[in-house]
Amino acid sequence: MTTRDRPFILGLTGSIGMGKSAVALMLRALGVPVFDADAAVHALQAPGSPLLPAIEAEFPGTTGPDGVHRQDLGARVFGDRAALARLEAIMHPAVARQREAFLIEHAGEPLVVFDIPLLYEKGHQDKSGGVGLDAVVVVSAPADLQRERVLARPGMTEAKFARILDLQVPDAEKRARADYVIDTGTTLAETERAVAALVGALGVKNCTTDSR
Description:
Elements: E1 8-13, H1 20-29, E2 34-36, H2 37-44, H3 52-58, E3 63-64, E4 67-68, H4 70-77, H5 81-105, E5 111-115, E6 135-140, H6 143-151, H7 158-167, H8 171-177, E7 180-183, H9 188-201
Parallel strand pairs: 1-5, 1-6, 2-5, 6-7
Antiparallel strand pairs: 3-4
Helix pairs in contact: 2-5
């Protein structure tokens, strides 16, 4: 990796049920710092968050002493693009501040990962208007395996799965647009080797790249 004034920033994404969270854990195990956008959102909707009054004002009855009632808020915005845009206008600037703080904290690292589930859906891959990514890796698996994984989740139905897919960029398009693809439709060990190979390919010398 050439000398840089900041880490190489790799965007990590993938459609529902593709194994993105598992790959994020593998990256962490290799010593790569990972910023989890979903975790940041959860923290910003927890009790005591300064965003709660704004969320309550926009979506009355969706917050309380325990923070955001995620099921109630989700019902308000799921499938309603205008409502979702109002929520994002509250959440996204705060997530961006956390992401910037994460980058400052890890400024000396050769590689960091931004785990962003809706990276393509929200245009974050755009270097002119996104989050400053140097490359994107998409986590993917065959459609039948994706369906099996998702429908095994508690509370998931065929109809809900179909609605989620309608809101996401198709997997084939994500793969075509990605700089790298990690296939999780294979064994865990093979996926781990692929993740280690990717870290190695990026020239990251300070991370363990298991030679198994």
